[in-house]
Structure formats: structure tokens, C-alpha cells
Amino acid sequence: MIQSVIALDERFPRREPPQTLGQVWLVGAGPGDVELLTLKALRLIKRADAVVYDRLVGPAVMAEVPESALAIDVGKQPGRHGLTQAQINRLLADLARSGRTVIRLKGGDPFIFGRGGEEMAFLQQCGISCQVVPGITAAAGCAAASGIPLTHRDCAQSLQLIAGHGKSGEPRLDDGGLAAPNQTLVFYMGLKWASTISARLQSLGRGADTPVAIIENGTRPEQRVLITTLAQLPATLAREQSQSPALLVVGEVVRFYREGDCFNHLLPASDAINAAYAAC
After folding, report:
1. Are 51 and 25 in contact (CB under 8 A)?
2. Which of 174, 152, 153, 160 is nearest to 248 (CA)?
């Protein structure tokens, strides 16, 4: 693990001498499918001198990183602690000070539960140029990959994106319209606290039979979608041994889900195009 005081000269040879400060791009990698990268994100990744990435960035996306670039994994996963946020902040600043073009690559969108705002503020305080490239956030990408509309004129006129855990653990679920039957709720990182979420929403007035979708590895080939109800959510997760990354989608829009209609069951676009040309 990179220590809190990062010796870049030893671990990552410095460009000698750096003519100017480098810059940092906070880039959204989307929910996993490489074809959901924006053109701007792909262009920047291919020009990167250093890529600092999280575990939610898909392997197909990482395959686009040039071999000449430093690729530094700062993600956290069960049984392995990544860097703290303060260490990541300092790493980004030190890489930029060495004259590099740095891509901070995040799953989804940097400004939606991606801590992009914290990193941007730190870099600005250090006088380092920081630009943001939005990405498709997990809620939009995974719901679309599952054939679930997040809004619908008949049953969902609003949408809330909610962190499934708080800074100190248990999520804060205040009565901010969470009980409204015409509102879709999407919980990020909510598996650990699913029982709390289920009980709290029911105590606020959400019906026990409210449909819930559990979307694991959304947009990726291994995507799995489980449909349950708010009351049965804890039991379903226990029975199915659901694993992160996963989203919880709560609301009437889940009733639109039809197994087999998801786009990830189709050929990837590039293969489909090749097949079309072969048939000509």
C-alpha cells in the first residue's frame, strides 16, 4: 500500500524536470460497460500519464488505459483496505506536481456518491487544475440495462438517489418524501443496511408489497436482477447471497421489469455490427 507520505520519486519515477504542473481530470467511467464511456472520457484515458482508479471501474474500461501510463488501484474491497480519502487526495496532488496528466477514474459519475467534490476541493486548494468529465451514474445505467424506467407518467413523477450507508455507518433516512408511492428510490451501496432500509421505509408508510429490484453488476455480462418486495428484501438477499456492487430500486416502476428484455443479453454493439456486415 502507498503510505500516507507518498515517495513518488521512488515508486513512480518523476519526469525530470517537470516543466509545468500537471492537471487532474475527474472522469466518470459509467457503471461498467465500456461502451457506455463518453467519447471525452475515452479520449482522456488514452492520453493519460497516470490513472488512479476504483474497484468499480470495469476491466474492459481499464483495458483502454495505455501501457505507458501508471495505473494505481486505490479501491476498497472486502478483506483489503484501500487508501483513505486523505491519502488519495495527496496522491492526486503529488502526481500532478510531477508534471503528469492524471485521470482519476471513478465508477459511475464523479459527483454522484463518487467523492469527486472532496477531491476537487482539495486540488483547488493546492492550486492544481482540476476538470470534471461526467459519466452515466449507476442508477440510470443499471436501471436501463434491466429494462426498468426510473420515472413514468403513470406511477413515478420523481426520483431520489440515496446513499445506502452514512459516513459513520447506518444510513440517514429522514422523511423527505420517502413514503410517497409515486416516487422511485434508488439506494447505492445499500446491501449491508438493507434490513434497516426495509424497516424504515415501511415505518414511514411504504407498503410492504412495494416492489424492489436488486441489480448486481449492472450493465456487465454477469448482471443479475432479483425482484422482491420491501417486506421480503432481507430474506431475498440472504437466500440469494447478493454481492456488491449492487443497487436497490424501490417503487412501482419495478413492475415494468421483464426477464430477458435487458440489453446486456444482446450482442455487444461491435459484434452486432460485424454480424450485420457478414450477412451482407
Report:
1. no
2. 160
Q: For residue 95, which of 124, 55, 123 has the smallest C-alpha distance?
A: 123
pLDDT tens readout for residues 138-186: 999 999 999 999 999 999 999 999 998 766 677 888 777 798 989 999 9
pTM: 0.84
175 as an active site residue: the answer is no
Answer for the pair 250, 210: CB distance below 8 angstroms, yes or no.
yes
Residue whose grid cell is 426498468:
148
CA distances 160 to 111, 136, 143, 268, Å, are 15, 16, 14, 30
Question: Considering 9, 46, 76, 175, which one is annotated as catalytic?
Answer: 76
User: Which residues are CB-neighbours of 247 under 8 A, at least 6 positions away?
Assistant: 138, 139, 142, 143, 186, 187, 188, 190, 213, 214, 215, 218
9 is catalytic: no
What single letter denotes the amino acid at residue 259?
E
17 prior amide bond cis, ω within 30: yes
Catalytic residue among 54, 94, 106, 109: 54
What are the grid coordinates assigned to 61, written together?
Answer: 474500461
